[in-house]
Every structure is written in C-alpha cells, then in structure tokens.
Amino acid sequence: MAEITLKGSPVKTFGDLPVVGAKAPDFELTGSDLSEFRLKDVSGETVILNIFPSLDTAVCAMSVRRFNAEAAARPGVKVLCISADLPFAHARFCETEGIDNAVNLSSFRSPGFGRDYGVEI
Question: For the chain, which ranges sit under pLDDT 50?
Fold first, then answer.
C-alpha cells in the first residue's frame, strides 16, 4: 500500500507498488484507437509509465503534456500515459493537445490494473 497526497490530504492506495529494480507486472490495456497493448510488447525497451486518474484534471493533463515533450527529447524511450479514461477521451485529448510522442492507454477494460500496480485510489 502506498500513500499519496490528494488535495493536501494523505490517501492510501490499494495494492503494492512494484519494487524498484523488479520486473514490472505485465498488463493488457486499450489504446486510443481501441487496439490492445501489453507491456510485453515493449520488452527490452526503456519504458516510463505515467499513471494518473484522469485527463480531466489539470495536474494529470499537465503531466501528459510534459511527458510527451520529454519523450520527444529522448529517442529510444517509450512513454506510456495510462488512466481510467475511455480511449475516446484519450484520442480527443491527444488530438487537441498535439500529443504524438507518448502512447496513451486506457485501463477501462482492465479493472485490476490499478491494484496490480498499487495505484488504485
């Protein structure tokens, strides 16, 4: 169980965060084009996971913009931006914001993802 801060108050998450240096658990998530994406699809690559609740919050949207910019500056690094938003929301956000360097994924078909990664609120 991890502890995060939400609106200035500590909140416990469900599940355990992956251990630093350990192999991350595989997952199957949905792309903004409704394609299926598994972590093992990028096996052997340098991958950064940006996991957040929703694109509809200012801080989360800002994180996607920032990770997209950072991904553009780091060829060979794959950035996965993951939330529970529907794939259609991801597609709309990416089009509106010009997000084209990060892979945006939805956990809407994978209810265990947040718990498996220790980030479910």
Answer: none
Entry pTM: 0.92
Instruction: Give the C-alpha separation, 61 to 117, whole Å.
Output: 20
Using an 8 Å Cβ cutoff, are 118 and 2 in contact? Answer: yes
HEC secondary structure over 68-97: HHHHHCCCCEEEEEEECCCHHHHHHHHHHH
Domains of the chain in sequence order: 25-116 (3.40.30.10)
Query: Please, are residues 115 and 12 in contact by the beta-carbon 8 Å criterion?
Result: no
Residue 38: predicted pLDDT: 98
For the annotated catalytic residues, the residue numbers are 60
Cβ atoms of 50 and 99 within 8 Å: the answer is: no
